[in-house]
Amino acid sequence: MLLMLTAVAVILCTTVFFKASEVIVNNQKEMYSEEVIADASGLKAGDNMFTANLDKASAAIEKQLPYIRVANVRRKWPDAFFIDAEYAETVLAVQKGNAYIYIDIDGKVLETDIAQPEQTAAVVAGAYAESAVPGNPVTFTDEKALSNLLTVVSAVEEAGIRGVTAYNVTNPTDIVIELDHRVEVKLGSVSTVAGKIAFGKEVIAKNVVEGATEKLIIDLTADAKAFVREKEETTVPAPVLTETDASSEEEYAYEDEAEEENGEEEENTDEAAEEDAAAEEDAGDESGDEDGAGE
Prior knowledge:
By secondary structure, the protein is of the alpha/beta class. It is built from six helices and 13 strands. It folds into two domains: about 90 residues, Roll (Ubiquitin-like (UB roll)), CATH 3.10.20; about 140 residues, Rossmann fold. The longest helix has about 50 residues.
């Protein structure tokens, strides 16, 4: 009898009793509405509180709505499901072909076909996406580069560093991040990034202040040392004449002057020849006149 009563009770609990009357959503942003999040979960009023698969509901939300980094789904007794949606805080812009994609700090694809990343996105250099489907993990042309990137991003997030505008993981022994579009922080090897950031956190906070405009380099590559210097502007020098060019120009000028002098000499020679011809002609006329007088 006890076994029968227990079986009946279980059946009633999973089929008749303990049905949810609503799905409650705690939404931190307005990117997705509460209705959209609830629909993505697959949970609805009338579902049994015991048999509902909450893990499946959480995964469905995170995949269908990529910008939700974590969806915490739980039972709220006596008759509701509660969804707490946490959005991706840091967005990374990674190049894919001639465009960019957005990924979160876990490597999940948020958005694709971005022509120009927004100012709030941290642009990644030295790592390129190969496959990108929103809601799914990204794959890189070099998976080691992806691993290095996520390691650096995780260290930055854990240290509480904000305002990162670029990550450069081109060289795993020379990791560089950019803050506020003006402060370049050199961190050295990817294996020591966490320690370097923890050590230089106060230096970074002191130099990355709102309203500042000077461009700086914070060098944390040395052990237990931090160096801060102004960043030199990289400019393209104006073209100048080399010594060879200058001598050539002088030589060309000299030749031009010589040609002018030769021209003047030729003109003088021509004038002298004309004068001689005129003198001979006058002499001829005078001799003619003398012959006529003799006759």
